[in-house]
Structures are given as C-alpha cells and as structure tokens.
Thrombospondin type-1 domain-containing protein 4
Amino acid sequence: MFVSYLILTLLHVQTAVLARPGGESIGCDDYLGSDKVVDKCGVCGGDNTGCQVVSGVFKHALTSLGYHRVVEIPQGATKINITEMYKSNNYLALRSRSGRSIINGNWAIDRPGKYEGGGTMFTYKRPNEISSTAGESFLAEGPTNEILDVYMIHQQPNPGVHYEYVIMGTNAISPQVPPHRRPGEPFNGQLVTDGRSQEEGEEKEGTEEKEDLRGGAPEVFPSGSAQAFPVRHPHAFSPHRPDNLVPAAPQPPRRSRDHNWKQLGTTECSTSCGKGSQFPVFRCVHRSTHEEVPESYCDSSMKPTPEEEPCNIFPCPAFWDIGEWSECSKTCGLGMQHRQVLCRQVYANRSLTVQPYRCQHLEKPETTSTCQLKICSEWQIRTDWTSCSVPCGVGQRTRDVKCVSNIGDVVDDEECNMKLRPNDIENCDMGPCAKSWFLTEWGERCSAECGAGVRTRSVVCMTNHVSSLPLEGCGNNRPAEATPCDNGPCTGKVEWFAGSWGQCSIECGSGTQQREVICVRKNADTFEVLDPYECSFLERPRSQQSCHLKPCGAKWFNTEWSMCSKSCQGGFRVREVRCLSDDMTLSNLCDPQLKPEEKESCNPQDCVPEVDENCKDRYYNCNVVVQARLCVYNYYKTACCASCTRVASRQPGFLGSR
C-alpha cells in the first residue's frame, strides 16, 4: 500500500514539473530548471536512503481468547498502516508504553473515528456493511513521539494482520515483540492500563489468570471494566488492613505478663462473591478473663502482623453483557443488524468472559434483529397520455405518475428518486389553426347614470377551430369596443363623494392610509352635503386602504419558546430565530449583534422525589440485579423496585422494558 502511495506521489510530481512552457521544469525545491523530485522518504532531491520501510504480516495461530500482541511501533514512525487481511470478529487495539489505552482497551470497543495518541492522529476504520470483506485498520501519518503497541482481541481464527510503517534513518529496524514471549502469545488476556511496568503487569496478572471461579484453571479472559458486588454486614470490621502502629501511651512492663494479644475476628470481606480478601483482627486481652483492655497493656512488638486471607471465593452470578447494534444491512426496506452478546462473570475484581452455559439461568438477548431505515419506493405510470389540450396548434397532454412504496401505497414524491421520475406532462402539436375576431354582446349598462356615457364590449383575436376561415389572420380592421349612450339630464342626484387619499401611516413596510367619504346631492352647478343614511342604498367607497412606501429591510423573527427539557434541576428551552426580508424570505442582512437568543436555561429549582411506599426490594441482593443490568426486565424491575428506581434516577434511560 505504501509503495502504491509513493508511485502516485512521483507521478503527480513528474506531471507537475513537465507541464511548463518552453521545456523548463520546476523541481520540488521550487527552482525553475531544477530536476529534483521527492523520494520515497519525503526528502526533496533525496536518494531513497534516508528511511526504511518496515512491513510484515502477523499470521500466528492463536488458541486463547483475549488480547495478543501483534507488533511494536517505534518512536518516530511515519506512514503507519495496520490492517486486517479480511473481515473477522476480532478487534485491533492500540496502547502506549505509558499504560494509556488509545483504542479498544479494557474490553471496551470504541466507535470508528479519529483518536489521538503517541503524538499523532490515528484513523480507526471498521467496515460494517454486510457485503464488505475489508477488515479493521489503523492509519496515521506520524511521526510518533513514543513507542506504541498494537494488539488483537482474539475471538476467532486470525485472518492475518498486515503492518507497515516508515522509519527515518539508514539503520535496519525490525518489528519488536515482547521480550519474554513469542509473537502472538496472549498478553495476560488484557492491556495493562494502570501505568505499571510490563514485567510487573505480566507477573501479577499472570498469577491472577490461573485462578478459576471454582479454584481450577480459567476458561475466561479478564476485562478492565470489572466490578464487585459488595454487601455490608452489621458489626463487621472494616475491609482495610488494620494498622500496626506503636501506641502513643507508654506500655507498663509489669502488666505485660498479665495481658496478651488475641484474635477477636476478621475484617469484613471486600466483596460478597467472586473471591475477596479479609484480615484477622488482634486485640489486647487479659490472660485470665479474656476481657479486652487498651492496647497499651500489651507489648506492641509482640502484636502479630495481620495476613490477608481469601473469602467469599464462590463465583458471582453470571450475566449477559450486551453490545451495541451494528448498522442496518440495507439503506431501505427490511435489513438485518447484529450485536455482540457475551456471558460475563465477576471474579477477583475482574469482569471475565465465560462459557455461555453459565448464563443459562437467564434469557439470552437476541443477537440479530430486523431493521428498516425507510421504505423502498419506486415510480409507477398509472395512466396513458391524455388527449391534447387543444384541437389545433401546440398544446399539452398529461399522464398520472405516482411514487409507490414496496407495499403498493402511494407516498410523497420525496420517497422516490426525483432524478428518475418519468415525465407527466409534454407538449403536443395538433397542426395550424385559423384566426378571427371574436366579439361579445354590447353591455346593457351605460357608464353614466345621467348624462352622456358609453356602453362597451370585448373584442379579441384568437384561433377559430372552424377550418373554413382563411389563414392570413385577423388583420388591422379591429371592431369598435365602445358606443355612446345617454340616460338623460342630471338633476338632484344623490351619490357618495370620495376625497383624495391621505399620508401612509408608516415610513416603510406595509401601513394604511385614509380618505374622506361623504354623501352629496348633485345639482346643476353645486353639491349639497347630506347625512350618510341618504346614500345608504348605494355602495359606499372604501375610506381606508393599505399602502407601502418603501421596504424596511431585513429583521429578526423568532418563534415561541419550547417546553423546558427538564422539570427541575436545571433544563433548557429553545426557539427558532430567522432573518427575514420584507417579502418574508430568508435573508442574511440582519445585524448579528441584535439576534435574539436561541437557547436559555429554565427550571433551576431542585427536584422533589416522589416516594412510593409500595416500591421496595424483595431480595437482599438486589444490588447484583442492578450491576448485571437486569432492571430492563419487568420481573426484576418489580422484585428490586427500590434499587432499580434509584439507578434510573441517576442514569436517565437506564430502565426499559423487555
């Protein structure tokens, strides 16, 4: 892959330097006429000796589940490419030598994306498409500023992992493997993330891994997400190791023979199951009465040192650990999605993956499910073309085109691909048409109620669908549209009189303007103002109308506030703010400093919890139900109501129904 990258780089450079007028070229040093090019080490004018490409394939057959070291990436590495040969159920992981997990550490699978580590940015890719055969990969440009280790979380046969990086310098560098282990050997089943040295982590964790939940060899592999199930017992000692300090008060020598140290019990076990630890508790007592006395009565140098003892070595109940759903296999219509479901058990403060039969007392969640992002729809032509809209000339014809879902329902056009939509309208030519003058009858009403006026009619030149007329057109001899009329002299006529419009009510935008409207009697040469009721039988002209002098420009508009996201303990509410012009279309001309707020806090008061007296825990170990994530089942939600309700109040969305 790196070689292909170098070839493409060289071709690009050669093409750029050759495309110069006059035969002169510009080299990578930006000098005209220079023939220098970038070598595979990224050096302008280099001779490919300033770096070394380190590559290989990790093909070791792995026998145990868990984390296995693949390759070490040295400090200063560039062009890093770690890729599975093909898709598998295994995962790649990345850790720094300082103990920090970068990708997929502590049995937690990260989402694909960009992760910073070792002084560079790694791109983590994990194709989820059903049809894809590509495996996972880590890609980074580098250079790294510390040593990094690549691991494989082994769950099925190793398909092979290709690794490649570039080191500047001429010294040969080979991939590094752990000093006490051949390549592919499991690194204690997990990544060490507590900052200890590698040897310390191997020695301690290797010892823990030999302990089975029942005292035998383990068939499980640890995770950094271990949790214990502590149970408090009354009158028990603290689970911490007792202090063995010299008392401050002086010890009377004459009394030391009458008192001695005696074990009076043990501390509380650190866990309720899965192997915990406890320490014996020693107290100063009288030799004869065995009554406890102050520690100053005993010789502090003779006090026994408490030694750790195992306790509650029986395993914790197994539970199903549910992973996230994968992407749907299809973008529309019914598809499939998958998730990982593992049987886990807590032992020695670690969460271990165990055989599925240990979870047989629980219903196993589904690992596959159907999914449908949206319905696949297609275009259907429902009718044939209609007849042309005109008997002659150019018209249009139409047909019915619908977007239909995969179950036959007509849906919105947006559900189908608009680029593939068949035409539902087209032009049609029915041949030439003749033209002629078309007239209406004269209007019966004269334009003046008294005196001289006119009557009108409509005249239009249009096509005549009767083909016997000549084809030369209407010509210039247009028939008259008006004729005179007279309804007699005007004397004592009553009518409304309207004055001129007044000034607009605003300087910009939409306003109103008014005018005076009065009732008058028209005589020969004068007008007489009458009461409005004298003209009530006539239609009164408008005394008010809208006006628009000039646009006001863009302004901020906003919606009402939404409901608060929380009823207490501080939530937020939102509203939409838009800049609109005078014609109510989106604009970018508003002053940003005057923009109203789109989000604000609300309901800061504290929540008052509602206490349900019927919501109680029926069993003493309901904390195990909570830690095993069983509150999603109705049975456990009822049997351990108080515990499940408490965790739901701390983690919204924790409870559901199964």
Notes: Residues 555-602 form one domain. The first helix runs from residue 2 to 18.
